[in-house]
Amino acid sequence: MGSVWHPSPNFGPRRNGARPDMVVLHHTAMQSCGAARDRLCCPEAQVSAHYLMSETGETLHMVAEDMRAWHGGAGRWGAVEDVNSHSIGIELANTGTHPYPEPQMRALETLLRGILHRHAISPERVIAHSDMAPDRKSDPGARFDWARLARAGLSVWPTPDATATGRFDTHAKAFGYTAGVTPAVRLAAFRLRFRPWASGPQDATDLALIADLARRFPVDRGCTNA
């Protein structure tokens, strides 16, 4: 299923010669895809995304990939502070409380393959909105199947490193969680993506997983224009 051009007026040029070197996934947190479409096209809202995808996989292309959509807001991933200038934003129609349907996930995989190929983006640079803005955002949320994307080569997933040493926070920053937040917020953002049902203080499993991610996927290694 291809995308349909449905332009939003909310965009501008990428700053300082930046090119897309990451993808940020969002959920709309609205009751319908139509409501999200209208908001992303409303000049007063001053928000947009490159793509909006419905629960059935229908995809609206709203901002050209070479332009800067307004989806990330304040945040940071690795060395990148202006995430909007460096990323392509994909909004998935979902309230944040229900699973992502199979047609939507299949369409997302197809869309991501094309984006990563066109811009030579590495899988570790497909991230959550909650990764780059952990103090503000929780999307795409605990229901999103990151492991599935990793199996398809479209994101990454950790393998526990039983020999891991060091501090969780140090490894988390090395992987990409560099936003100016407390260690507790960084841990919560990591768990939301990789251990969504975990709770309580940081434990050995957290350390084993983040150490593996930091070792295999150090942030900015796959960035071509930081």
Task: Name the beta content range.
Answer: 5-15%
Quickly name the level 1 CATH class of the largest domain. Alpha Beta
SSE order, one letter for each helix or strand: EEEHEEEHEHEHHHHH
What class, by secondary structure content? Answer: alpha/beta
- Poorly predicted regions: none
Treating each run of at least 4 consecutive H or I residues as one helix, how many helices?
8
Strands across the major sheet, in which order? 1-5-4-7-3-8
Through-space gap between termini: 33 Å
Based on the coordinates given, report the CATH architecture of the largest domain: 3-Layer(aba) Sandwich
Number of beta strands = 8
Mean pLDDT: 96
CATH homologous superfamily of the largest domain? Peptidoglycan recognition protein-like
Secondary structure: elements and pairs:
Blueprint: E1 3-5, E2 11-13, E3 22-27, H1 33-40, E4 51-53, E5 59-61, E6 67-69, H2 83-86, E7 87-92, H3 102-119, E8 126-128, H4 129-132, H5 146-151, H6 168-175, H7 183-194, H8 204-216
Parallel strand pairs: 1-5, 3-7, 3-8, 4-7
Antiparallel strand pairs: 2-6, 4-5
Helix pairs in contact: 6-8
